[in-house]
Amino acid sequence: MKKTLTLLTCVLALFTSSFAQTEDAIKWEKKSFDFGSIKMGPKADVTFKFTNISKAPVIITAANPSCGCTASDYTKTPIMPGKNGEVLASYGTDGRPGFFQKSIKVTFDNGTITDLIISGTVTSDPAPAGKSNELK
Q: Residue 48: what are its φ and ψ, rounded to 5°?
């Protein structure tokens, strides 16, 4: 019984320490963005930037939007310690007036998972041709 308890304590300690390391591996400039009031038509884009503050390279393995009206793109190459990466969130405003709040679940190879949130209100006034809702 004593050996089982010791083994369980060791496994729990290893799990806890490895989880703490992954939580501290990524430092985001921001994890949410409110577009405020935006015109209907062009996509609303924002770039979320982060820094790898761990001692090992990290790779984004997925960036999954919460629905089909939201798209994402991200840094595909390994992000070395001290270097930066990005996740682009893009919301399709065309034909979608009103408030929106969407998320993108970003998964890294080290087990870190971050939910990025975008929100705003699409006005029913169409944007002039050639205008973009892109923000960085």
A: -95, 125
CA-based nearest residue to 41, from 134, 116, 114: 134
**Per-domain boundaries in the chain:** 26-126
Residue 70 structure tokens: 């939201």
**pLDDT, tens digit (0-9, with 9 covering 90-100), for 13-52:** 444 434 434 457 999 999 999 999 999 999 999 999 999 9
Distance CA 86, CA 107 (A): 13
Ramachandran quadrant class, 86 (left: phi over 0; alpha: psi -120 to 50; beta: rest): beta
Q: Answer for the pair 133, 127: CB distance below 8 angstroms, yes or no.
A: yes
Which spans in the chain are helix H?
2-23
Question: How would you classify the pairing of strands 113-126 and 70-74?
Answer: unpaired
pTM (2 decimals)? 0.76
CATH of domain 26-126: 2.60.40.10
